[in-house]
Amino acid sequence: xxxxxxxxxxxxxSEHPTLRxxxxxxxxxxxxxxxxxxxxxxxxxxxxxxxxxxxxxLTASGTxxxxxxxxxxxxxxxxxxxxxxGISADPMPxxxxxxxxxxxxxxxxxxxxxxxxxxxxxxxxxPFLRTLKARCVVNVFGYSTEDYVRCIETLNAGDGIxxxxxxxxxxxxxxxxxxxxxxxxxxxxVVAASKxxxxxxxxxxxxPNVTDITVFARxxxxxxxxxxxxxxxxxxxxxxxxxxxxxxxxVTAGLSGPxxxxxxxxxxxxxxxxxxxxxxxxxxxxxxxxAIEFLIAGACAIQVGTANFxxxxxxxxxxxxxxxxxxxxxxxxxxxxxxxxxxxxxxxPAKEG
Amino acid sequence: xxxxxxxxxxxxxxxxxxxxLSVLSPEQAQAARPxxxxxxxxxxxxxxxxxxxxSIYDLRPGDNGDGxxxxxxxxxxxxxxxxxxxxxxxxxxxxxxxxxxxPLGHGFFAEDYLAEARAADEVLHVAGxxxxxxxxLPARELAAAGVQQRLFFGGRTDxxxxxxxxxxxxxxxxxxxxxxxxxxxxxxxTGTLESYLKSQPGKRLLILACGPWGMLEATVALARRxxxxxxxxxxxxxxxxxxxxxxxxIRVRGEGHAAYERVCTExxxxxxxxxxxxxxxxxxx
Lengths: 353, 285
Ligand SMILES: Cc1cc2nc3c(=O)[nH]c(=O)nc-3n(C[C@H](O)[C@H](O)[C@H](O)COP(=O)(O)OP(=O)(O)OC[C@H]3O[C@@H](n4cnc5c(N)ncnc54)[C@H](O)[C@@H]3O)c2cc1C
Ligand SMILES: Cc1cc2nc3c(=O)[nH]c(=O)nc-3n(C[C@H](O)[C@H](O)[C@H](O)COP(=O)(O)O)c2cc1C
Ligand code: FES
What we know:
A: alpha/beta; TIM Barrel; B: 2 domains; seven-stranded antiparallel sheet
């Protein structure tokens, strides 16, 4: 899986970036410049399932809208990729308020997957995303296998989509994706059907709310997933003791933010040892150091979620910090990925477990 | 809208756990419109994660400004300490820095609102508690446009009725109400509002209301009963204020995907008839 040239060769993908036609010139200009500068930043680009990301930092679905909302506050062209808000075949209204509540070092949310639907996404949101250097990953969600397939079939028409991220793990819809995410047979089935329908590489976003993540990682792999994204939010709950009512109308809600980071690192570590497909790590990342933990645990890229809400500069700071770390430690990104030193071993263990 | 780090220039305590935080940020101050808000981020503390929404209470020329003509440089926030975030705000000192995302949202005079205010015989400001913070800038702008105005202001006790003096240059009359009767009329602000509405048959009034949900709902019911239009500045918990988390959505008139709108983006000011009221819609902030 790891190549000598410093790029990470992933799954069925080629190690060369597939340039978007409209960016081809700009991109190659940058590549040329890099090769002539004497002391360039170490490259931290990564290719996952044939999709080339200029750096391993993506923004997480549901925390970054459709990208444009952040155009005034950060330089979107510095991002590796943008995972857009979960899209369903038909528009969804979402849950009644209250939908969010801040907890210690985290937050609960039960938005209910409010979104504009696949058709309006293509018409209104994709044209902007297409102009960016950041790769566009479309998060897809449904209530049934047919929903997922129908959504993907609509989205397949979208020029500028780089990959799908199948959300089979949202804890906030009554009979939604979580049913798939908590049954390995259903996981394999919906992944296989989606993979057959998909024109673009398929990342599968797993639920952390399972007893053994490796079972689901293997199920998604067997269904044909090109990469895994983990994790989605942990199911949680909070009660207002004065009114004795739940703080969130949906009663239970997804916990995200720094509070979940150690849980997420553990799950990435376990999944990375169970399957050979690339893993994208998420959960409470708010600094370069947080992100590097995920990389060492076995993620070849990471996503920043909740931190975008209060510190939109986080993804760029994380990308710069990873680059800085690689330079200081004289290590390539692909060498860093999965380089965990377990007690009693001198060197990093082989990735496959 | 800009996301900056701004320097605190003052943090003045008032009565009842209220304070006025002043921050220097000329660009944001000059961009701000009446009824817009800011997100304040306490830097360097991870135990308060999200930024806190605060109405832009006042805009002032900075210390180096030369009098009335100078452009705004400082933003004032009138706030009440109610929890962890506001307690940390209260500890800020001049020279400290805060994260400031501002200005945000549609204010009171976006779109057709100002035309409506000019066409009215009188604008009634109705404030419940800290809701007063959203109304000072609109009052000043309307006064400059020659619009007649009245302020109805209610709180639990006299200590809640902060910032009344600042309104005096702009309003013909101020009617205060406290639940415990320590200042003004005893009871709710909607009591004084109803007496006034009753006494003005045939007048075209525009109500601008900001305060807790119950008070807004009662105000909107009065506006409907007396056939007057009402703009409400809504509150809800906010995750991002950039329009992406969809955490601040409230129920509005509309079906399917149009059943919810974001307080941070489509609001915070809405026409009262556009919002779906009722206890089950309560955002419970
Ligand atoms: C558009 C807008 C303008 C506002 N303007 C002002 C103002 O000018 N002055 C002022 O004192 N307050 C204002 N508020 C309310 C203020 O944001 C809350 O009082 C504050 O966030 C409470 O934070 P805390 O950490 O002290 O309380 P906590 O209870 O510890 O907060 C917990 C969480 O709930 C949220 N929250 C709690 N109460 C509210 C509320 N009433 N509205 C929104 N979010 C809430 C917080 O943001 C936080 O995420 C405004 C709210 C909104 C939405
Ligand atoms: C408000 C909110 C909305 C979210 N919406 C989605 C979504 O639509 N689809 C999805 O796959 N994940 C969604 N997530 C989960 C995030 O993408 C991410 O997996 C999770 O928040 C953990 O990362 P974090 O701790 O960095 O936020 C959402 C999270 C939040 C906080
Ligand atoms: S606060 Fe996030 S969408 Fe309004």
